[in-house]
Amino acid sequence: MANEGFIKLYRKMLEWGWYDDGPTKDVFIHLLLIASYEDKFYRGIPLERGQVVTTVKEMEVKLGLTTRQIRTALSKLISTNEVTKKSTSKFTIYTINNYADYQACDKQSDKRATNERQTSDKPSNTKKVRSKEYIATTAASDAGCDLYNQDLSDCIQCYEQNCGSIPRAVSDEIKAALQKFPAAIICRAIEEAAVHNSRRWSYISQILARCEQEGIYTVEAFKAKRDSAKAARTAPRQNDATAAMERLKQLAKGVNADD
What we know:
With about 260 residues, this protein is mainly alpha-helical. Helix content is about 65%, strand content about 5%.
């Protein structure tokens, strides 16, 4: 996250319910400081304004608090809906609810402005209105975007783990593939490519193309097709082995199979 710029911290926070709880206050202000101030990608993870990817361990180092203190503080912040979190096996995204309100313009500061400044306050008020519009727009689109962003993040993480760093072009290809396939199928295709040591998108896209041709859109169908192909490959070898064993038995009995 950026170490430049600043955040706004209003005096009204003195009335905040967790203000006299040192660890909780420290964790919340820390999240405000490191949260993304705009929509962006962070290490392949899509983040919206007011979100941040971090870990309890990182907060321990930064804040000098124990694991228990940080987990307790986060639980308190979540219980009062100050913060929400979304966890996966690889990372956790923390969202500061009402982030736009915390970082909106302070109307009280306008009262201290001179007559000349009052004219220039209008853009500031407009900015606050836009912040409210942003909240409304984001709230309306969250239901659809959250799932898509999570799926995209899962696919990017899977690609990075199996194939290495992800080029922007591949990220765009994954976005397009998500219009056709669930994330689980794309991840299976990536893993399958890695098993065959073909860690490139052209090979992965061929797997997905076959899935589309054969109507495979679930993990169960993908596994069934893979197991079927594996069985077809091993069947001839098993038949050859069975025939060889039968030949050995006949030889052991002194029987000529050609007789």
